[in-house]
Write a structure and sequence with these properties.
126 residues; alpha+beta; globular; 2,3-Dihydroxybiphenyl 1,2-Dioxygenase, domain 1
Length: 126
């Protein structure tokens, strides 16, 4: 048995200035950039997230700009296996997350628990 829930929207920006990208998206979405968040480091900037709302993270990338989602879980291998049964394919297994591709073509990530209160509002899978 494991749990999973929709966790985050990541805005992938092909840019040399991730701070400027975060400033833009923060203003566009009405959220401040959270420079003190542990996730605001290197190529990543977190926007302030109200309790019980989805995380918004800005990510500097080398590929085309796009948006992708993260699914957080307390058991990454079990969630990946569940999603594979639904038709998703593993694209890359990294140290702390797995990149997958849905049968409809979109890429997304399966990540460890990111938000407080887990497993509140999570699905329980047997």
């Amino acid at each position: 048995m494991h749990h999973s829930r929709f966790c985050a929207v990541l805005i992938d920006c092909k840019t040399s200035d991730v701070d400027e990208a975060a400033r833009y998206w923060g203003e566009a979405l009405g959220r401040s950039v959270d420079h003190n968040h542990p996730g605001s480091r290197g190529n990543y900037r977190m926007l302030e997230t109200p309790p019980d709302e989805v995380i918004v993270q800005i990510q500097r990338v080398d590929h085309e700009s796009r948006v992708h989602i993260d699914i957080e879980t307390d058991d990454i291998p079990a969630e990946v296996a569940r999603l594979e049964k639904l038709g998703a394919k593993v694209v890359d297994r990294l140290e702390r997350w797995v990149v997958m591709q849905a049968p409809t073509g979109q890429r997304f990530c399966v990540v460890r628990v990111q938000r407080p209160g887990f497993p509140k509002n999570a699905n329980r899978w047997d």
